[in-house]
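Private note to self, pasted from the team thread so I don't lose it. Backbone tokens:
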């Protein structure tokens, strides 16, 4: 299962460009090649985010992950990538490395959104003991 669909690519890039890169006559003919590129990009992304994101049929894919997968898939559609496509792919890969190292969070810090994973520690914060309001008069 890919993190993005051909319609996500169409929302980010011109349809005519995608049809040309897929070497197809129309959108219906291009969808299989676009799906292949998205599957390839999703498999690559899995290697970086599987620890932090559980992919499933009922799981909502974070918009950041959709963008990264689309950038990598767009690169894979080219036989000879343009400089912009190459730069976008490198930037997407760098972001995936940051996600893998924990510098960027896909779950936006929401403990309820985190999938069960080994070593995850969730602590409830009891609130501040000392604050300006509680220490007034000292």
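Design output:
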């Amino acid at each position: 299962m890919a993190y993005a669909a051909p319609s996500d690519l169409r929302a980010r890039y011109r349809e005519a460009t995608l049809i040309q890169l897929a070497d197809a006559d129309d959108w219906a003919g291009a969808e299989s090649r676009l799906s292949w590129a998205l599957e390839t990009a999703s498999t690559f992304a899995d290697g970086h985010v599987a620890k932090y994101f559980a992919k499933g049929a009922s799981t909502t894919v974070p918009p950041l992950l959709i963008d990264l997968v689309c950038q990598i898939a767009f690169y894979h559609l080219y036989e000879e990538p343009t400089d912009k496509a190459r730069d976008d792919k490198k930037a997407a890969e760098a972001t995936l490395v940051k996600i893998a190292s924990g510098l960027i969070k896909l779950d936006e810090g929401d403990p309820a959104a985190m999938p069960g994973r080994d070593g995850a520690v969730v602590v409830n914060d009891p609130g501040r003991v000392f604050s300006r309001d509680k220490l007034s008069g000292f």
